[in-house]
Amino acid sequence: MSGRIGVLGAGHLAGYLLEGFHRRGAGGRVRVSDCAAGRAGQLAARWGAQAAESNQNLVDAADLVILAVRPADALPACRELAFRAGQVVASAAAGVTLAQLGPAVAPARAVRVMPISSAALNGSPTLVYPGHPAVAEGFALLGQVHVLADEAGFTAASVIAAFYGWVYALADETVAWTGRQGVPPEIARPLVLETLRSAADMGLAKAGEPLGEMLERLATPGGITGFGLAEIRRRGGLEAWTLALEAVLGRLAGR
């Protein structure tokens, strides 16, 4: 990554991004703004980045500005700053549309992104709309980049960032249940997480095979997989999951 990166914000997401850049040897090209007292300096020192003197100082020094603040703070923060032509502002503020962001960062180019916390381990599937070479290059350091063809598709795909968090809830419940059955915690936690990872790895390795067909082969007649899945469906577990996805989409879309 040859361009200079500025991370505007010093919260959890900023920390994940800085760690990921550091792991790829790009920390020296990154500045972080001091939106929280002392936080930017701490993050910069930990991950080999630079702490900007102010938000405007960060913007002045960056070719790619990553907006990593809470959605409610995104537009007010941008309106206080002077951006320049040729600069790109990649906003990770969920629900803030290009129509809202564009005027606030003009004459810079506005782009929406949706990374997740696994950026810290260079494993984030990051959504991007619209596509831009500098954004693709920067976020490729943090994982796989997925460019969406339109903003509606970006909004729908952004729901998967919530799904990412729900996976922890599912894993935590399963680990706790396994422990209650007498499995030692030092076995229960890795067992559950390794199983999740293995399922994902198999799905990715067999990209041309529908997931439903993979499940069908596992859920053999009389087996425990099919038996338990039928119970989940009987109790509306998968339906509740779909309804939650719909509810998050409605919130992101302002419905």
In the CATH hierarchy, what is the class of the largest domain? Alpha Beta
Query: SSE order in H/E notation?
Result: EHEHEHEHEHEEHEHHHHH
Derived structural class: alpha/beta
For the largest sheet, list the strands in their spatial order. 3-2-1-4-5-6-7-8
Main sheet properties:
8 strands, mixed
Classified in CATH, the superfamily of the largest domain is NAD(P)-binding Rossmann-like Domain
How far do the termini sit from each other?
38 Å
* Uncertain stretches: none
Number of strands: 8
Q: What is the overall silhouette?
A: elongated
* Multimeric status of the protein: single chain
CATH topology of the largest domain: Rossmann fold
Written overview of the protein:
It is a single chain. With 255 residues, this protein is α/β, with parallel strands linked by helices. It folds into two domains: 5-147, Rossmann fold (3-Layer(aba) Sandwich), CATH 3.40.50.720; 153-252, ProC C-terminal domain-like (ProC C-terminal domain-like fold), CATH 1.10.3730.10. The protein is 55% helix and 12% strand. It contains eleven helices and eight strands. The radius of gyration is 21 Å and the shape is elongated.
SSE arrangement:
Layout: E1 5-8, H1 12-23, E2 30-32, H2 39-47, E3 50-51, H3 55-61, E4 64-67, H4 71-79, E5 88-91, H5 98-105, E6 109-114, E7 126-129, H6 133-140, E8 145-147, H7 151-180, H8 185-205, H9 211-218, H10 224-234, H11 237-252
Parallel strand pairs: 1-2, 1-4, 2-3, 4-5, 5-6, 7-8
Antiparallel strand pairs: 6-7
